[in-house]
């Protein structure tokens, strides 16, 4: 019997070995698969188990965390949620994250391995690092001025620092409070449905993710292309431009709202925003050179990130002459985000150089130690420096005595360009009012701010929508805020 | 089939004439370690959860310590030659179970199970002491074989008269206590099987009919035991407690093999087990769904119905990794229902990791090994079979439930010995340890001495 007891014992050993091997398979070799299974709530619980890092503007946090004591413990809160919504996005326990909350999630949630004070220590202790902070480039005064300037109207403002590409303001109205999407109660679902069904689209980031026909503000690009290509060599020389201008190969004639555009010089045409002159200039420059300049400014570029993705601005390159004429004055298939138009103004102010815009100055650990900084951004030369000098002059003229006098700031050098963009089928929609500008304070060695403002106001009478009237005062307020502090 | 002739010579070596050391001091030291480890676990939970040692730590440690010491004294006085590892292993596993249940109680403030479990543990240890003190010789049990089997069947039939709980008729609820009589029946059946097989060992070897290569014993010998086994299995199928049914079957096959030495029994047993499993898995929807879950544990997630208990259990084990999350820091409570009983091992796996889980498995392995060792050293067939049977109960039970919650075999509801919440189970396990202590005491006692 002894022998059989031994064999039975061997059977028990086999059972034990089977259990140990299976446990090893489960806990070592398949652990990662199970950990990453979306139905496994552990990662979610860990993610919300500690306060989320903050997003900072001007050294002050504009976000916070609220301890709910529930399974998903900490919920996101926002100070001035609607003001910063196009920058922060939301951090919802049900609907995920968007914008900066999304792209910087690793740092904010503490998942980024760089947050660990010592490498590999976290793997051993399994302690999650405290969420780090994200310091933005935003200028609080500029942001607030833009938001208040837009008021109840629908529109967007983007402001950048020309020499660096730092984004100083990014505003979209109507806005929403992202805090309504934090948490996971039934009110969050109601908010989500309500915000998505709202015809005003409050969650749409109009400053960076909505393109508009840029209208006359695109004439900055056309002028740059004409000067660079040598089509125009003297800005004060009369151009050979009829008024009205019959679009080549068609029976449609283009007219102007301003008088005296026939054979106007580039300076005068720019000052009074003559469509006929720029349409014909565009045709003379040709689609190749005009598209090349537009692309140097950032048009047709996909994959621009600030760090979240920006909607690509477009300049159609497969056009006939009539379509090219319309494209040159910012119509037809030419579309731009407000951020893109701010980059256009910034390039003029920065000697023709375009800096990639960015929102995140640096990321830090909870204790303030720097993790990562923005570093130098790539530079593109959009036009000759000499062209930039002449365009600055033209833009200054617009503000001094042209269509953009509303943007003038006493004691500062301001250059700008108005725009009124037609849209809709047969241009039936209410036009968009545009204004792009830059400003240099008295004591500054270079322009400090470049702004693009778009106001789409469905309530206003069509004739009253104008870049100079509606958009320029907002741009001025933003520029004043930056120059003043 | 099996020709391990080289081990045969050593197996029947004569027992050494020198007296084995009693090692009661080592037992005491190990008990102290077991109690300290349990108290440490209790404190670790409190520190992880609230940043402070829980207020009841001293009381808990003192309670467990006093129980263990009294049990040790009982062993020292009444079973001085007993194996010194059995009692410390029982204390450590029971203490660890209490820690895990206390830790899970923190997640379910409305449903505290640790206090009741502590009461049942006390009862279990008391039963252990009573058994060790009163049962002077295990051979007494042989006389009560038929009383045991009658009692076992009665206990198995009893819950049928009570309403089903969670799909299985295995509980009786009296005055707020729920008792699982099938747990006690295990020990009684082991005693009966051992007694019957020991008495009829010679007869079972008689040649009966021959079916192909298999030499069957005569029907007169085999009849009663097969009918009792069939009856117990039938009762269990009616009660839908497949785990215990599997356990009885395994116990029966192992003891039959050990008693008769016929490897054919293993083949027949495995064949019957396979047939039974297929039949039950096919016919019984409750069991069928368990098999489906085992084959495709994540199917309910892919179907959009969210994770089921088994996948939550696998998530918990996977989350533990090699070193575990630390006591009190896991999320095994996501398993939901039965997290403190059938799925208690998932909490151990998540919070103690593969390291802790392996340690627990090895503790069980050691307990079983000590039982088999006693079986090898004993000289009466009843004692041998009883020791092997009791150890096999522990081994099979651990395998069935641990294999179930880790996805090795289809999940059947069963309590992890000592760890899981459940009073009947704790008392039964202490009874098993008590009998093993008694058996090992007899096994290690020198020939010439009578009862100490």
UniProtKB/TrEMBL annotation, chain A:
Which residues belong to the signal peptide in this entry?
1-23
Ranges for domain Penicillin binding protein A dimerisation come to: 52-134
* Entry keyword set: Signal
- Short name of one Pfam family for this protein? PBP_dimer_2
Q: List, alphabetically, the SUPFAM superfamilies matched.
A: beta-lactamase/transpeptidase-like
Could you tell me which residue ranges the Penicillin-binding protein transpeptidase domain spans?
A: 155-480
The answer to whether UniProt assigns keyword Amino-acid biosynthesis to this entry is: no
The keyword Signal belongs to this UniProt entry's keyword annotation: yes
Q: What is this protein called?
A: Penicillin-binding transpeptidase domain-containing protein
């Amino acid at each position: 019997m002894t022998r059989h007891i031994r064999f039975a014992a061997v059977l028990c050993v086999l059972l034990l070995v089977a259990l140990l091997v299976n446990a090893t398979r489960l806990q070592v070799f398949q652990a990662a698969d199970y950990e990453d299974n979306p139905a496994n709530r552990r990662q979610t619980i860990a993610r919300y188990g500690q306060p989320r890092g903050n997003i900072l503007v001007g050294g002050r946090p504009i976000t916070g965390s609220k301890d709910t004591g529930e399974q998903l413990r900490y919920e996101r809160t926002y100070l001035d949620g609607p003001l910063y919504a196009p920058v922060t996005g939301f951090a919802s326990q049900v609907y995920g994250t968007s914008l900066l909350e999304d792209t910087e999630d690793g740092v904010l949630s503490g998942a980024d391995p760089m947050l660990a004070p010592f490498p590999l220590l976290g793997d051993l202790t399994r302690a999650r690092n405290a969420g780090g902070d994200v310091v933005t480039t935003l200028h609080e005064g500029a942001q607030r001025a833009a938001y208040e300037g837009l008021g109840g109207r629908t529109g967007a403002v983007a402001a950048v620092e020309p020499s660096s590409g730092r984004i100083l303001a990014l505003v979209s109205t109507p806005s929403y409070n992202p805090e309504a999407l934090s948490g996971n109660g039934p009110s969050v679902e109601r908010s989500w449905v309500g915000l998505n069904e709202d015809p005003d689209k409050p969650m749409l980031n109009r400053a960076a993710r909505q393109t508009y026909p840029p209208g006359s503000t695109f004439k900055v690009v056309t002028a740059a292309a004409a000067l660079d290509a040598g089509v125009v060599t003297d800005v004060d020389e009369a151009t050979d431009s009829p008024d009205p201008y019959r679009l080549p190969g068609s029976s449609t004639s283009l007219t102007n709202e301003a008088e005296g555009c026939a054979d106007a010089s580039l300076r005068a045409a720019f000052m009074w925003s003559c469509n006929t002159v720029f349409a014909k200039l565009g045709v003379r420059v040709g689609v190749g050179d005009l598209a090349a300049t537009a692309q140097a400014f950032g048009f047709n570029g996909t994959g621009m990130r600030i760090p979240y993705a920006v909607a690509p601005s477009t300049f159609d390159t497969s056009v006939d002459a009539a379509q090219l004429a319309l494209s040159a004055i910012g119509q037809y298939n030419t579309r731009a985000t407000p951020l893109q138009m701010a980059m256009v103004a910034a390039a003029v102010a920065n000697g023709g150089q375009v800096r990639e815009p960015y929102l995140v100055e640096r990321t830090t650990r909870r204790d303030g130690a720097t993790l990562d900084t923005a570093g130098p951004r790539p530079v593109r030369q959009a036009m000759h420096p000499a062209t930039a000098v002449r365009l600055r002059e033209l833009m200054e003229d617009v503000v001094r005595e042209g269509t953009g006098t509303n943007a003038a700031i006493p004691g500062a050098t301001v250059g700008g360009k108005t725009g009124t963009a037609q849209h809709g089928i047969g241009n039936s929609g209410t036009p968009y009012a545009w204004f792009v500008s830059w400003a240099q304070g008295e004591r500054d060695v270079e322009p400090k701010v470049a702004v693009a403002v778009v106001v789409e106001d469905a309530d206003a009478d069509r004739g009253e929508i104008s870049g100079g009237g509606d958009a320029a005062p907002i741009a001025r307020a933003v520029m004043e805020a930056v120059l003043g502090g | 089939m099996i020709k391990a002739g080289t081990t045969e010579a050593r197996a029947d070596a004569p027992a050494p004439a020198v007296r084995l050391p009693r090692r009661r001091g080592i037992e005491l030291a190990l008990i102290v370690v077991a109690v300290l480890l349990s108290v440490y676990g209790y404190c670790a939970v409190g520190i992880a959860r609230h940043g402070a040692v829980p207020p009841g730590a001293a009381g808990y440690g003192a309670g467990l310590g006093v129980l263990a010491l009294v049990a040790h004294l009982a062993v020292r006085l009444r079973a001085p030659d007993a194996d010194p590892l059995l009692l410390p292993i029982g204390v450590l596993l029971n203490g660890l179970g209490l820690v895990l249940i206390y830790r899970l109680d923190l997640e379910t403030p409305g449903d505290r199970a640790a206090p009741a479990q502590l009461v049942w543990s006390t009862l279990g240890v008391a039963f252990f002491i009573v058994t060790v003190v009163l049962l002077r010789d295990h051979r007494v049990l042989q006389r009560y074989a038929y009383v045991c089997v009658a009692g076992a069947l009665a206990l198995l039939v009893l819950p049928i008269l009570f309403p089903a709980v969670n799909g299985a008729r295995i509980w009786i609820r009296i005055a707020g206590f729920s008792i699982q009589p099938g747990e006690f029946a295990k020990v009684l059946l082991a005693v009966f099987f051992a007694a019957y097989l020991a008495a009829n060992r010679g007869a079972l070897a008689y040649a009966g009919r021959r079916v192909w290569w298999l030499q069957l014993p005569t029907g007169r010998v085999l009849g009663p035991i097969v009918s009792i086994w069939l009856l117990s299995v039938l009762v269990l199928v009616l009660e839908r407690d497949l785990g215990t049914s599997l356990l009885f079957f395994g116990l029966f096959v192992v003891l039959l093999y050990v008693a008769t030495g016929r490897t054919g029994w293993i083949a027949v047993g495995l064949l019957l087990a396979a047939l039974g499993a297929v039949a039950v898995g096919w016919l019984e929807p409750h069991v069928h769904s368990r098999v489906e879950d085992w084959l495709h544990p994540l199917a309910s997630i892919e179907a959009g119905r969210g994770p089921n208990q088994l996948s939550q259990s696998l998530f918990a084990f996977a989350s533990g990794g090699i070193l575990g999350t630390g006591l009190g820091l896991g999320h095994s409570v996501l398993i939901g229902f039965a997290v403190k009983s059938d799925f208690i091992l998932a909490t151990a796996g998540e919070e103690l990791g593969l390291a802790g889980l392996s340690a627990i498995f090895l503790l069980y392995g050691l307990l079983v090994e000590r039982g088999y060792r006693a079986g090898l050293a004993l000289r009466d067939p009843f004692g041998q079979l009883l020791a092997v049977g009791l150890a096999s109960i522990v081994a099979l039970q651990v395998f069935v439930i641990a294999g179930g919650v880790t996805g090795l075999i289809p999940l059947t509801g069963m309590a992890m010995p000592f760890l899981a919440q459940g009073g009947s189970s704790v008392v039964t396990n202490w009874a098993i340890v008590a009998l093993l202590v008694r058996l090992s005491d007899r096994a290690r006692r020198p020939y010439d001495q009578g009862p100490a």
